[in-house]
Amino acid sequence: MEWLQKILSNAVYTQDGKLDVEATMKKINEEAPKHIVPKEQYNSKVKELDAANNTIKQLEKDAKDNPDLQKAIKDHEAAVKKLQEDHAEEIKGMKIDSAINKALSDQCAKHPELLAGKFDRSKIQVTDDGKVIGLDEQMKELTKSYKDMFGQTLSGKMPANPDRGAGGSVNTFDALVKNADNMTAEEVAAQFEAMAKQ
Prior knowledge:
By secondary structure, the chain is mainly alpha-helical. Helices cover 61% and strands 2% of the residues. It has helices at 2-9, 21-35, 39-62, 67-106, 112-115, 136-145, 173-179, 185-196; strands at 125-126, 132-133.
């Protein structure tokens, strides 16, 4: 979510030094549709597939011996197959992107948006159960080839933090920017609200 990090890095503050939540949320709402597949759009695709399948079933019932309708059935079947392939490819791409971003984050990549382009996606596969394979070897090569692009991984227990809010969340702007890639839009909004109340 590099786009979200850019917005948060350039967030507007009020005169009393507090984050201008309304202005920041406005920018997020403007940019989000360019980077996130909305749930409504996803559901719309599913409904589209269901409608096409129902049409095929109805046509098969109505016209087993009609050549024109048989052609219409074949056309609908081809359209459904194409929709399913496109949808599967889109989901696969999103899973690979997410896995790459997580791997780079786990290795403390300093410029993940640049390093993400170094992966050979043709060697990364998504299994039937949704697991992403073929990423670890490439990650090892990247950390060797671009040592300066990765920071050190810190270990140990989380120290006490007075800014830590209820539920273990850290209600600071820096923490929000750092953790934005691993948060949903709803979690980001909730974090903003918690910061505004401080």
